[in-house]
């Protein structure tokens, strides 16, 4: 159940990183208005080690309700109750969201050196499992996104590796 | 007369040293040939070193451990970098969740890092030497028969030492390397080293682009 009492929650997560440019971008009126236009009612931001604090808001008057926190032992509950997830490009956050079949926008942090994370986000976006953006293009991505165009991601498992390892080590087949 | 004997002695020493080097070279060639060849049938459990990395690496390693016939990999030694607090906790939670706990013999160890993110390369030489010494100590202590790793830099000193142990006949460790799912087009530095130096017995990649680029790898699809 992703909607509570008609609420449509957007959950923003940066994992254990500091990703101030994403939090700042999400906190701009342009992005908040865009989300409001798309029918979302609440914005919850997990800001990790970030230093920029968004402005909390209790909603009403055509505004989103806004709340934020730094860390949580598990964000699964927040993910479950979300109608849209906006995440940094960490593989853990990406696959947790995809496993829960949540519409996902991955925002790549361009301040990171040797940004290999973008490879994963771009590949999954090419396969239409999520939308990929940069902080500067987030508003546009939200404006143009068509959630129906997303293809569900089928989680894998490591059984094939386990079988190869077993065979290599000479263990009997299961 | 004395010159003659000195020259003789020198020649003998040179012969000895060359023979010794030739022997080592032959042994290294044999080890590289044998690496990647499946082992004979076995029923005994194998001692296993599990190298944990931060964040996504830990999640991916636990994802693999969850589907292994875990009883075949005993005793298990978990290693994580000294600055990584979460991974060993998660490993403990995993072990606690297993049903058959009798005779459980796991160890959880932290190892010095070769290099912190952003550390200068000059100071990294010193820290890498310390990390290698620590890795040597741990490998002598554990002498694992199987090593599971999936990317963090922590695995390099351990795998290099495992290779030397193979050459020296101290212990044959089968090294399984699983490149992270986040690596789509390029290998990580650890992966590149293990692949090029042919140190991993089996090298798994999760995306077809990597299989194309590195044909000796095994393409296993996305594991997450």
Describe the structure.
- The complex is a heterodimer of chains A (174) and B (224).
- Chain A has 174 residues and is of the alpha/beta class.
- Chain A is 33% helix and 20% strand.
- Chain A has helices at residues 20-26, 29-37, 76-80, 91-99, 117-126, 138-144, 159-169, and strands spanning 9-13, 42-46, 57-60, 63-69, 82-88, 104-107, 131-133.
- Chain A has a 7-stranded mixed sheet, sandwiched between helices.
- The mean pLDDT of chain A is 91.
- Chain B is α/β, with parallel strands linked by helices.
- The mean pLDDT of chain B is 91.
- Classes of the chains: A alpha/beta (174), B alpha/beta (224).
What is the structure about, briefly put?
With 174 residues, chain A is of the alpha/beta class. Chain A has helices at residues 20-26, 29-37, 76-80, 91-99, 117-126, 138-144, 159-169; strands spanning 9-13, 42-46, 57-60, 63-69, 82-88, 104-107, 131-133. Chain A is elongated, with a radius of gyration of 18 Å.
Mean pLDDT of chain A: 91
The description of the largest β-sheet of chain B is: 7 strands, parallel
Number of helices of chain B: 7
- How many β-strand runs of chain A? 7
Terminal-residue CA separation of chain B: 76 Å
Classification by helices and strands of chain A: alpha/beta
Alpha-carbon Rg of chain B, integer: 20 Å
Decide which structural class fits the backbone of chain B: alpha/beta
Helix and strand layout, with pairings?
The complex is a heterodimer of chains A (about 170) and B (about 220).
Chain A: E1 9-13, H1 20-26, H2 29-37, E2 42-46, E3 57-60, E4 63-69, H3 76-80, E5 82-88, H4 91-99, E6 104-107, H5 117-126, E7 131-133, H6 138-144, H7 159-169
Parallel strand pairs in A: 1-2, 1-5, 2-4, 5-6, 6-7
Antiparallel strand pairs in A: 3-4
Chain B: H1 2-34, E1 48-51, H2 56-65, E2 76-81, H3 86-97, E3 106-111, H4 121-142, E4 146-149, H5 155-168, E5 174-178, H6 189-196, E6 202-205, H7 208-213, E7 218-219
Parallel strand pairs in B: 1-2, 1-4, 2-3, 4-5, 5-6, 6-7
Helix pairs in contact in B: 1-5, 4-5
